[in-house]
Amino acid sequence: MSLRVAVVGATGAVGTVMLEKLRESALPIGELVPFASERSAGRELEGGLIVQGLTEESIQGFDIAVFSAGATTSREWAPRFAAAGCVVVDNSSAFRRDPEIPLVVAEVNPEALDNHKGIIANPNCSTMQLMVALKPIHEAAGIERLIVSTYQSVSGTGVKAVAELDEQTHAVLHGMEPGEPQVYPHPIAFNVLGGAGNFADGDDHTDEERKMMFETRKILGDESIAISVTCARVPVTYSHSESVNLQTREPLEVEEARALLEQMPGLTLVDPYPTAAGSAGHDDVFVGRLRRDPSHERGLQMWVVSDNLRKGAATNAVQLAELLHTRGLVGTRAAA
Predict the structure, then answer these.
(1) What is the pLDDT, as a whole number, of residue 263?
(2) Dihedral through CA 175, CA 181, CA 187, CA 192, nearest 10?
(3) Is the pTM of this model over 0.70?
(4) End-to-end CA distance of the chain
């Protein structure tokens, strides 16, 4: 049976890549329908696709919907799609903490899809790439403690952040004073912001840091992992980089860890290390600088890089859609 697939948030940075990945996918797509805000309704996209607005009538009759339209839109419309017989893969933070909704990385915990109730959550982009690198190590030796520092690109904040970086960089390079920052609290060009994300009242960690702590434990199914995270924003357009220090529960030699990573689907080892620019536009997670932490006999260190719009968002969402189809987990859609 051919599938009717929706992309909600199709005109955004991630939504555009979702459409690209769906066109390349093995899914038997009979119809691909983009959705976006009312102001984008009627706009023609590549391939002659016409953007639709979200209404109770327009969302009927879909098999799978992939969302990247923000948590507010997802909370309102994902349950409506699900009620209409569609399975939703949501890229926002709306459902990740819900114990009834699986939080899934395709190569890491695909079995979590089996008991879905109509909605599946895509993890945060920084968590996503980390899980691909940690899964084989956690499975072989357990992880006792994890310390992660992220260097996150501006595309993780959206197209306005990319434009702000471009405009500020142009101004500085041409001897002009950049305007007041609109997206970030400080200028991002030629700068590093030591707190990627937002600080909730009374919290000394950002929401990005809290997401990584919670999501890591949920995906790996291990609440006992001690985790410390610092998220920073850097003046890079695409790809997040992560410095990862971990302490295993059982002894694991560096060469044993390397062999495990070499066998991990969706992961490529790069010596001496991958770069953000070199990883952009690729679907894999790239790992380098795998070495022993000299301060602890069971400590390992590595450098993890991945394109945040691809594996960090769109690629995983489409992989989950493919898994839902191959595992026979797409329900009978409601009649249009």
Answers:
(1) 98
(2) -150
(3) yes
(4) 16
Q: Residue 284 gets which letter from DSSP?
A: S
Distance CA 31, CA 35 (A): 13
Average pLDDT over residues 204-228: 97
d(CA 52, CA 44): 10
240 labelled catalytic: yes
For residues 106 and 216, the answer to whether their CB atoms sit within 8 Å is: no
Q: How confident is the model at residue 97 (pLDDT cuts 50, 70, 90)?
A: very high
Q: Residue 243: which of 198, 304, 307 has the closest Cα? A: 304
- pLDDT band of residue 40 (cuts 50, 70, 90) is confident
Q: How many CA atoms lie within 13 A of 173 on its CB side?
A: 8
DSSP symbols for 286-314:
EEEEEEE-TT-TTEEEEEEEE-TTIIIII
Q: Is 145 exposed, middle or buried (0-12, 13-18, 19+ CB in 10 A)?
A: middle
N residues, the chain? 336
d(CA 82, CA 279): 35
236-259 pLDDT, tens digit per residue, is: 999 999 999 999 999 999 999 999
Q: Which residue is catalytic, options 125, 138, 205, 325?
A: 125
- Residue 82: pLDDT over 90: yes
CB contact at 8 A, 182 and 161: no
Structural tokens at position 299: 């400590």
Catalytic residue among 116, 205, 240, 325: 240
